[in-house]
Design goal:
The protein is an alpha/beta fold. It has a domain of about 60 residues. It is built from two helices and five strands. The longest helix has 13 residues. The relative contact order is 0.19. One of its GO terms (molecular function) is oxidoreductase activity. InterPro entries: AKR, NAD(P)_OxRdtase_dom_sf, NADP_OxRdtase_dom.
Length: about 100
């Protein structure tokens, strides 16, 4: 996978990252086996920049990522996350 330097940092990121929202079943139901396999394959292909959020699947994405990443040396992956609302109730974003 092609990599590029991130701004003025020493980080080199793949041009294609792994979006972990699907691990939280944001778009369709996936089995735990499918979720873990997709993350492992992405890492094997060099997509070691992982975009996640505590809100994907109400934390499910990060729990599953933890299962895959816990045995890897920390320098082998880069996590990108975000913050936002953490209320479990539905929120209407419409104007």
């Amino acid at each position: 996978v092609e990599r590029r330097k991130l701004g003025n940092t020493d980080l080199e990121l793949p041009v294609i990252s792994y979006g972990a929202s699907s691990l939280g079943q944001e778009f369709r139901r996936v089995t735990i086996e499918e979720a873990l396999r997709s993350c492992r394959v992405a890492l094997e292909l060099g997509m070691n920049f992982i975009d996640t959020s505590p809100f994907y699947g109400r934390g499910m994405s990060e729990v599953l990522l933890g299962q895959v990443l816990r045995d890897l040396p920390r320098e082998e992956f880069i996590l990108g996350s975000k913050l936002g609302r953490y209320d479990l109730e539905h929120f209407d974003f419409s104007a």
